[in-house]
Amino acid sequence: MVDDALIARAASALASARLLAVSSGAGVSKESGIPTFREAHTGLWAQYDPEQLATPTAFRRDPHLVWAWYMHRRRLIEGAEPNPAHVAIARLQAERPNVMLITQNVDGLHGIAGSRDVIELHGNLRRYRCADSCQGDPTPVDLDGLDYDDETVPHCPHCGGLVRPDVVWYGEPLPAVVLGAAFDLAECCDAMLVVGTSGVVQPAASLPWVARDHRAAIVEVNVKPSGVTPVADYFLKGPAGEVLPRLVEAILSPSLSSE
Ligand code: OAD
Fold it and tell me: How far apart are CA 120 and CA 110, in angstroms?
């Protein structure tokens, strides 16, 4: 359990920032019951390596298999609700206009919790697009009314090509606008709160290092040390759903608000 004094010191560093960036990863959704990317391969899917499935090559080779894997992941996400960590971040944003949020998660739970202007680095599994970007990149596709099931990939209503989830796959670049917004924020923020990421998947893993190089204070919340920990000024060890509500309460406390 993180002690109150450490929470208070970290909260003070975050409360004094003119621009505060929050950067989240799969750990923030863990307490909503969503397995992290690398844990998601259970049951029927245990024989597959997610890093081999989430690639453009795999989709070209066997679109039905990749589609079925994403339908499995979509069901996990659709059955989940925001947990106290998502709610705490949304509360902080509601109270403070200077708090911006970047996430690697594709589950959309930050938005459902009420967070605004979420920079979704890896896309969103609740959105779909034409795999050939036939009307421009991206060409959004609404699945309602399309013919599909777990094994049948829907066809694009514009060009008849295949539809894919609007997420970033291994080997694909992140959308330039999204990536630019995230790195601008990392360069400009005075503090970054990093929650529940292993800090190993690039380019997202570089964000805390860039922020640190620009003299931002770094606060990390994780159940165990990660690739971010070497640059963290404060490491708050514990589940995000327990630590974040306390941290946000401290940031918003009248004593820090009046500083
Ligand atoms: P990871 O699965 O790599 O790491 C999850 C992190 O969350 C680990 O550091 C855990 O210790 C931590 N964690 C677990 N439970 C937690 C809890 N209750 N509270 C706080 N922390 C907790 O997830 P990411 O770093 O988000 O990319 O993974 C990044 C990317 O790897 C994903 O977005 C995905 C995957 O490749 C793409 O799909 C492009």
Answer: 10
